[in-house]
Amino acid sequence: MKSPLYILGFMLALAAVFGSAVTGIHLAGAKTLEANRTFLFQRSLVGVFDLAETDGMDAQQVADLVQRRIVTDKILKDPESGWETDLIEAYEDDAHSKLRGHGFRFRGRGFWGPISGILALTPDHTKTLGLVILEQKETPGLGGRVAKPEFTQQFTQGILTAPPSLGQRYLVVCATRPTGEDAARRHVDGITGATRTSIAMDGMLNEHLARFHRAFADSAIPNAEGK
After folding, report:
1. pTM of the model
2. Would you say 218 and 77 are in contact if contact means Cβ atoms under 8 Å apart?
3. Which of 13, 43, 158, 195 is least buried, going by the fewest C-beta atoms within 10 A?
4. pLDDT tens-digit profile of 21-56?
5. Domain boundaries, the chain
């Protein structure tokens, strides 16, 4: 008959083996998840600035392109709200001789949960270059279409984002196209059947554009004309 000490030692050794195995699986899974998150974010950066077609590119190729063409070493801070963001600078070439545009991350409350993404602007910040949604919890087939090309593709068409007239919005996300040339150029088609999500996007994009313009104006970073 085995002694109690032997049985106790065997159980402890068995627990240690299984515990180590579970920990190893967890760590391996966590590394894989983090690698996937990094790849998806970097692919979003390439896509929102239209630097390349990422279909067929592996994670290393995407990472290399981001390293060569995108810089995120500057911080913007809105003097009014205190909001801070990394300024995303994308370049047309590896030598960084021509700026393609600036971008920033935004985050706000949707109808069911947080919505976050990246908005890219032309170097003079007067028009959109693209928009990508990184996170959303809206209803599939309704508000969830905020992440689909039917909504995001509009931002590749150069929607006006220059500071508007006093009392006006930077963007107007709604179903009905407004009258007036300036308002029409700022119009974004809302998501059919998802009014609350459209209203949420209107609010968060306008809020973040206002913050971005104030923060950039308050910074020492040269504008598109180098001033």
Report:
1. 0.83
2. yes
3. 13
4. 556 565 556 677 788 899 999 999 999 999 999 888
5. 59-218
